[in-house]
Amino acid sequence: MCGRYDLSESPAAIQAHFGVPSVPQFKPSRDLRPTEQAPIVRLNPLSGKRESSLARWGLVPAWAKDLKFGVRCINARIDSLAALPAFRAAFRNRRCLVPASAFYEWSGSAGHRMRWRVAPSDVPLFGLAGLWERWADPHSGDQVETYTIVTTDASPRLAELHDRMPVIVPPEHFTNWLDPACTRMDLFLPVNDDVLRIEAS
């Protein structure tokens, strides 16, 4: 599971790393939480080129009654994306990358929890696999864009803290993940432990 992450890099850094023409202004945060807004990277449906927009963390499918639905959809398991009603339409049509500087996991018993900061050791910014949706308020008609972070089995070292981890998409596979026609989920297996930096935070 990924319930918090760090996005400390600037819009300019995201623009350069993900190859988008611009990134909306946002407030960098070392502790992004569900329901907060953050930038995502996706394909423009008309041009087919990458773009960035702000979205609310916690995916809300078009058929949901209200935004509260998103609280239970902050993560989506990569092995069930195509089957679960909340995620399958987005998996087929609306994939995204979630820029991150690190993500967090916790260990220890209640009252003695320790937070661990996890990130690839050689880069200050990377992309997590995500899905996005556009939800319309049935009363006002206002539209809200939301997203979820896709998870997979944890790498052996990280499994000592938690059994799941976000899917880290290497730059050479950005295009694969964003392409709805790509069904090779084996391209997005957990990264090797030797490239992860895990530090008490």
General description of the model:
The chain has 201 residues and is mainly beta. Helix content is 9%, strand content 38%. The protein has three helices and 13 strands, in the order E-H-E-E-E-E-H-E-E-E-E-E-E-E-H-E. It has helices at residues 11-18, 88-93, 174-178; strands at 5-7, 29-32, 37-43, 50-57, 75-77, 95-100, 102-107, 114-120, 126-136, 143-153, 164-166, 168-169, 196-200. The strands form two sheets. Strands 3, 4, 5, 6, 9, 10, 11 and 12 form an eight-stranded mixed sheet that branches. It has a five-stranded antiparallel sheet with strand order 2-1-7-8-13, with no helix packed on it. A hairpin with a 6-residue loop joins strand 7 and strand 8. The longest helix has 8 residues, at 11-18. The radius of gyration is 16 Å and the shape is globular. It starts with a strand and ends with a strand. The mean pLDDT is 94.
Please render the helix and strand layout as text:
Layout: E1 5-7, H1 11-18, E2 29-32, E3 37-43, E4 50-57, E5 75-77, H2 88-93, E6 95-100, E7 102-107, E8 114-120, E9 126-136, E10 143-153, E11 164-166, E12 168-169, H3 174-178, E13 196-200
Parallel strand pairs: 4-10, 5-10
Antiparallel strand pairs: 1-2, 1-7, 3-4, 6-9, 7-8, 8-13, 9-10, 9-12, 10-11
Helix content: under 10%
The low-confidence parts are: none
Number of helices: 3
Query: Averaged pLDDT, please?
Result: 94
Instruction: State which percent range the strand residues make up.
Output: 35-45%
Structural class: mainly beta
Distance N terminus to C terminus?
17 Å
| Cα radius of gyration in angstroms | 16 Å
Major sheet characteristics = 8 strands, mixed
Write the H/E string, N to C.
Answer: EHEEEEHEEEEEEEHE
Shape: globular
Number of strands: 13
